[in-house]
Amino acid sequence: MKKIFLLILIGTSVIMYAQEPEDGLRLSWFTPSGTARSNALGGAMGSLGGDLSSNHINPAGLGFYKSSELLLTPKFLVQTNNFNYRGYTSSSTDSKSNFGSVGFVFADGQRRNNWTSTAFSITYNQIANYNNQFSFGGKNNFSSFSEKYLEELIGDRADTNAALSNYIFGSSLAYRTYLIDTTANAKGAVTGYQSLVPISTGVNQSYNAYTTGSYDELAFGWGGNMEDKLYLGGSLVLPMINYTKRLTYSEVDATSNPDNNFGGFIVDENFSSRGWGIGAKLGIIYKPESFLRVGFTLHTPQVITFRDQVSASMTTNTEKYAGIQSASSSELNNGYPGTSEYTVSTPMKAILSTSYFFASPSKPTQPLGFIAADLEFINYAATRFYANNYDQATSDYYNALNATVKAAYKNNINFKIGSEIKLNGNWMLRGGAAYYGTPYKDESLKASRMVLSGGIGYRTNRNFIDFTIVSSTTKDAIFPYRLNDKPNTYASLTGNQLLFNIGYGIRF
After folding, report:
1. Which of 300, 332, 467, 488 is deepest in the core (most CB within 10 A)?
2. Residue 336: pLDDT above 90?
3. Sign of the CA dihedral with 269 first, then 129, 497, and 29 last
4. Model-level pTM?
5. What is the DSSP letter of 302?
6. 42: alpha, beta or left, given left = phi > 0 and alpha = psi -120 to 50?
7. Concatenated DSSP letters of 359-392
């Protein structure tokens, strides 16, 4: 092995590539949130209408409004995550409160030609919450976090100057702290790179990540009612994404051998992503009979432009080899974070919906309640990343990333069902369920989302209030790192979420 002394300073203009396949999945695989009423019905709102969540699910539902409405929906979320990583178990708990939905609808109940009524709506809805904590670890004698740096340097055929300066948010930190070092032939010439991690005897790995942020939508929608039979609608959607991740990852020699040139290393990474975009939702609802509704909705791909920032630091203990060495991207980049600007196209979504209304046996003309169901088709493999500034290296990177997304994910059909029953007076009882199947092609990755919900509502001609509790269970695979030449190790996640939702509205 040959030690390289680090005497190079680099400039401040650095582009980093930090996107992973999971970044695309974060924009498509989630259980959308909405109003308290919508959440209580499992999100099965595609053929119902008369709720502000229609602006984000099926805008044709706005056509059911014949009076204006203002709505506020705060919520409180508690979640617990349980992990199993290579036979080692751990758990974490977190809680947050914020607004789920807020908005208003202006309805025109006057008949105009064939239009019985029309409505325009502006709503702000948090459809995904990123506040979470992931903490797991265990012994691994199969692979190491350091190998992703090794793969990068070898794959790029990087010389030692490139290893020192071209990967300052990852591989260069590993090289500068001797986590990755050179190999040499008998004449002392550099022949390649190697990791100093003694994988065969095992390392104790620890992964701790704290994420914050949300996926929000500002929607401008219109819905129209033709003869109380056919309902048409559309909405212009402006997605806004705010996501941060603070990661601390470490590996420690499982043998505690002071003479194997490895004691351990720790890497800290701070990542933030901001995105703004545009999309559209088009829908139709038809009533062939007074007791039956069918709906169809098409959500176009959302085109979202992101700006990411990242900073990282690493400390490595190679014992007698080079001692304790530290390096940071801030030092190597004159205090500036790495930046990246790119565009993501999310998958298109199609929703087929139906609802059946039933009446009281004693009052056949008086609706007693309904049962509704949605089938939602989405192709998770259709997410695409695009470079905002073209050069060959950037193009190759995003082409490879898109190929990985296409190979890792698949299409699926999600199912939602909900029911509402009118009780005595102005009270309503609601319940719902939803199932989101795995987005992964790999059948060994047992991933799914199951939602059970219930709630009550009280409604008068002028005001209403809704209370909802939603219990959801998520099964997923969390990858601490990804390698190209080995099967990727991951932590099995079972997450339990409890959402408390209150909705208050005024009609005028």
Report:
1. 332
2. no
3. negative
4. 0.89
5. P
6. left
7. EETTEEEEEEEEEEEEEEEEEGGG-EEEESS--H
